[in-house]
């Protein structure tokens, strides 16, 4: 059996101040990015509108393409080339286009197709994919995504309250909140579009991070029972070191999959891969450098009444 990083004795807790500075700077940088690229951009699923992915037989002139879309009555559409010179996406999220979706989800897409056919000829292009979302559907999806995030967080809190005593629960909740905030800052820093795929990635990151924290805290509880006189500072470090081989193998293989998606998958799945790749990193980071120091601080602030365990000899 492959064994790596066996019997390490790294003092992780010692570096908590540097970790706080790094993560705080990253979060400030991420949210500060709104100063030059605006606030979050939402996908058509949440705002309503029309998205068409087109494949032309020959590379079209971008000016003619934009002119045809505008003649269809769609103003301010975002036309983007991706993949190659013959593949384009047309995104209409303006207020007029969204309002027109209320009369029929595919009305704008049909007008764009007719205009492009008139401009470039019959059979000159193929509609690879089309999404048309009305304003009411977009509002419902936006509300449903928010409810999903809130429910997942409440379920997490309920599970922690049942699984651990409140000291462990507080540390795990703060670490999970750190991961959510850091992931949102990462999304803003890369200016990723908020879509249902990205929401799914954020929910996955919450579960992934919580799982890693619970594994470390389970080992902490086991070690607390084995050696009741050991300093808590040393118990935390020992528990992190004992779970380190498992963490490296698990996170390494998972990250290999997300990096493969990032490099080889198409533009639809790439935002999910970006968020998951970062989430694996920040989940491991918070389990070691956020959850453990906070548990140490909580234990020092509100020590157990039935134990004489020293909290930290080198705090």
Structure report:
With 315 residues, this protein is an alpha+beta fold. It has 11 helices and 4 strands. The radius of gyration is 25 Å and the shape is elongated. It is 65% helix and 9% strand. The model has no long low-confidence stretch (mean pLDDT 79). The protein has helices spanning 16-32, 34-37, 44-47, 62-71, 95-101, 107-120, 135-163, 166-189, 196-226, 232-264, 270-301; strands at 49-56, 78-81, 87-92, 125-133. The chain has 2 domains: 13-41 and 138-301, Multidrug efflux transporter AcrB transmembrane domain (Multidrug efflux transporter AcrB transmembrane fold), CATH 1.20.1640.10; 49-133, Alpha-Beta Plaits, CATH 3.30.70. Strand 2 (78-81) and strand 3 (87-92) form a beta hairpin. It has a 4-stranded antiparallel beta sheet with strand order 2-3-1-4. The chain starts with 15 loop residues before the first helix and ends in a 14-residue tail after the last helix.
Name given to the CATH architecture of the largest domain: Up-down Bundle
Contiguous helical run count? 11
Gross morphology? elongated
Mean pLDDT across all amino acids: 79
Q: Give me the strand/helix succession.
A: HHHEHEEHHEHHHHH
Structural class: alpha+beta
Chain-wise SSE layout:
Layout: H1 16-32, H2 34-37, H3 44-47, E1 49-56, H4 62-71, E2 78-81, E3 87-92, H5 95-101, H6 107-120, E4 125-133, H7 135-163, H8 166-189, H9 196-226, H10 232-264, H11 270-301
Helix pairs in contact: 1-8, 4-6, 7-8, 7-9, 8-9, 8-11, 9-10, 9-11, 10-11
């Amino acid at each position: 059996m492959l064994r790596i990083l066996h019997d390490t004795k790294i003092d992780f807790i010692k570096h908590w101040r540097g970790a706080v500075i790094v993560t705080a700077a990253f979060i400030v940088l991420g949210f500060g990015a709104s100063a030059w690229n605006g606030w979050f951009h939402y996908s058509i699923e949440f705002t309503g509108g029309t998205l068409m992915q087109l494949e032309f037989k020959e590379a079209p002139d971008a000016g003619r393409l934009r002119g045809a879309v505008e003649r269809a009555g769609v103003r301010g559409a975002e036309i983007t080339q991706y993949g190659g010179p013959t593949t384009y996406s047309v995104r209409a999220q303006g207020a007029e286009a969204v309002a027109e979706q209320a009369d029929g989800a595919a009305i704008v897409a049909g007008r764009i197709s007719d205009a492009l056919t008139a401009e470039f000829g019959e059979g000159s292009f193929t509609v690879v994919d089309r999404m048309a979302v009305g304003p009411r559907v977009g509002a419902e999806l936006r509300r449903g995504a928010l409810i999903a995030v809130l429910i997942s967080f409440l379920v997490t809190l309920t599970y922690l309250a049942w699984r651990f005593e409140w000291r462990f629960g507080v540390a795990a909740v703060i670490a999970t909140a750190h991961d959510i905030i850091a992931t949102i800052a990462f999304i803003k820093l890369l200016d990723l579009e908020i879509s249902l795929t990205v929401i799914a990635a954020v929910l996955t990151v919450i579960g992934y991070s919580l799982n890693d924290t619970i594994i470390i805290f389970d080992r902490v509880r086991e070690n607390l029972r084995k050696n009741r006189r050991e300093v808590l500072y040393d118990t935390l470090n020992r528990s992190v070191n004992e779970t380190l081989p498992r963490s490296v193998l698990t996170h390494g293989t998972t990250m290999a999959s997300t990096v493969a998606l990032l490099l080889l998958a198409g533009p639809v799945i790439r935002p999910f891969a970006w968020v998951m790749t970062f989430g694996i990193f920040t989940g491991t980071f918070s389990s070691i450098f956020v959850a453990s120091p906070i548990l140490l601080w909580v234990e020092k602030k509100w020590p157990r009444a039935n134990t004489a365990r020293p909290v930290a000899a080198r705090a």
